[in-house]
Design goal:
4-stranded antiparallel beta sheet, 14 strands
Length: 181
């Protein structure tokens, strides 16, 4: 499933509608512990850390289930979505068939993990996916570098390349300012 920003909702799409009441059986877990109670639970004392939302526009063709944490999940932490093997679908006597665990990890705070400088460009290895245009806005150089351009070739934008007219044979101070989204 990959990595997600800690506050983003998690969407699960099914190719057919779930049977009534089945969405509430899907669990969000951290370290094997359930993070939420089923909505169907009558116990008002149960703490629910996220809410369920069904997209009624697609429920007839398929099911979209969205898990929205009430509070951001812990950063840089492994989580999973758990689906029971007997999860039932509307109009079908065949359940999911086997328990399904979908692991994912929340992203850590933005930052630079390492820097590589060659003759013509600078490569920033980011701690988490980062928009190249955001990096350019927060970069500063002493002495100044003209024609700075940032881009990424990897789909997750973890390696950010920086090109520009770097001063030949001079020390270069590079700062990535605070506030990088």
């Amino acid at each position: 499933m990959g990595s997600f920003p800690p506050g983003d909702p998690i969407a699960l799409y099914f190719d057919r509608p779930l049977a009534p009441g089945e969405a509430e059986r899907i669990e969000l877990r951290r370290a094997g512990a359930r993070l939420a109670a089923r909505l169907a639970a009558a116990d008002a004392n149960l703490i629910t850390e996220f809410q369920w939302r069904l997209d009624e526009d697609v429920i007839d063709r398929a099911s979209l289930i969205v898990l929205e944490p009430f509070e951001a999940l812990s950063a840089s932490t492994s989580h999973e979505v758990w689906l029971p093997g007997d999860l039932a679908f509307a109009g079908s006597s065949l359940p999911l068939g086997t328990e399904l665990r979908i692991p994912f990890r929340t992203l850590g705070p933005p930052g630079v993990q390492s820097v590589v400088l060659d003759n013509t460009s600078l490569m920033l290895r980011m701690k988490s996916p980062t928009d190249p245009d955001s990096v350019r806005k927060y970069l500063s150089f002493v002495p100044p570098v003209r024609n700075v351009r940032t881009y990424s070739w990897d789909s997750e934008h973890v390696a950010i390349w920086v090109d520009g007219e770097f001063p030949a044979g001079k020390p270069l101070a590079i700062t990535l300012g605070a506030g990088l989204p």
